[in-house]
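Researcher: Go.
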Amino acid sequence: MTVHLALPSKLKAGTYTQSINGSHAGVDKDNYTITLGTANNYVVGKQAITYDIAAGNITYGAADSAGSISYSALEAGDVVSAVAQIDDRALSTAEKLKAGTYTQSINGSHAGVDKDNYTITLGTANNYVVGKQAITYDIAAGNITYGAADSAGSISYSALEAGDVVSAVAQIDDRALSTAEKLKAGTYTQSINGSHAGVDKDNYTITLGTANNYVVGKQAITYDIAAGNITYGAADSAGSISYSALETGDVVSASSTN
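Model: Structure:
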């Protein structure tokens, strides 16, 4: 018979014919004319093994690579291999694998010179996990003079992946308005108004870095005392006081004396 060996000198899976090795022997062989009746085949069945795909874990933004494939019981020296893939890949605006849990599967089929000696089935395909990236956000300081239109400071993020879309709007806390409906002079804290938005926000765990204050400075104005003029003997009253630039509706007053 013809013998085919795998790399570690194992008979390969397959069906082999059989034949006499040499000739008949024994002290009485010459009493017989011996011809072949039936030479049955010799069958080497495939060995059943399993393969596993290793778990994978990265933080969003890192380069991804599917888990390695291992086999349960290859004969020593046999060459069998395969490559895994991450299924149903979902990419962010930055073209990074989105945060989440993904299944994995074999990419194509098993390869290697000894693969045909095995019946290979899946053991365990572990998941591939992309964890959220931790970043911070800051609220910029704001500064106006009383009477000017107010707008909270802008929000910036510490480490967004290039191209990702995440945004939020800040607010001035505990707003106190004057009679003129203007933000009163003083120092205010700021905070996020609502929550973070944007198609890529779910790839991040976002915490506050620094929320700077918003300062409304006092407006500088002047006041004038009007001239007074009476004839001797008449009742006197000091001139009235007027202000140069009060915001419309604001209530400020004073009285003068002679």
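Model: The chain is about 0% helix and 30% strand.
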